[in-house]
Amino acid sequence: MHNILSGWSLGIALIGACVGTYICRAIGVLLSSHIHQDSEIFRWLSAVTYAMVAALTIRLILLPVGLLETVPIGIRILICLLSLGLTLYRPGRFLTPALFLGTLLMILYGVIH
Asked: In percent, how much of the chain has pLDDT > 70?
């Protein structure tokens, strides 16, 4: 193992990884002019992405792991609804404050209890 990591082999591996990454990026840039963002495939990818984020969010609220597991489910749902309410109050303008509110309320609960 020591022989593999010594000398030039680590540098060659790093250069190879960089070249492979930048070749893929260059191909993506070259092909990007032929891709239409309003196509069906991109609408499908967008829908799948939103569905995955929603599923992970629900999983985080209902089946948490670690310290979040110690917070009662009612408190987690209440904080989520308060943050969602702030987001829906003015769509598109209050996403960051809503995330901050949820984080702050969760920290406040942790400090109080």
From this structure: 94
pTM (2 d.p.): 0.60
- Reply yes or no on whether the pLDDT at 111 is more than 80: yes
The rounded distance, in Å, linking the Cα atoms of 18 and 22 is 6
Under DSSP, is residue 33 helix (H, G, I), strand (E, B) or coil? Answer: helix
- Per-residue burial over 83-108, b = 16 or more CB atoms within 10 Å of its CB, e = otherwise: beebbeeeeeebeeebeebbeebbee
The CA distances from residue 23 to 11, 12, 28, in Å, are: 18, 16, 9
Q: What is the pLDDT of residues 34-84, one digit of tens each?
A: 878 888 888 998 899 999 999 998 999 999 998 889 999 999 999 999 999
CB 75 within 8 A of CB 109: yes
Residues 18 and 28: their CA atoms lie apart, in Å, by: 15
* H-state helical runs in 1-113: 2-5, 9-31, 40-62, 73-89, 95-112
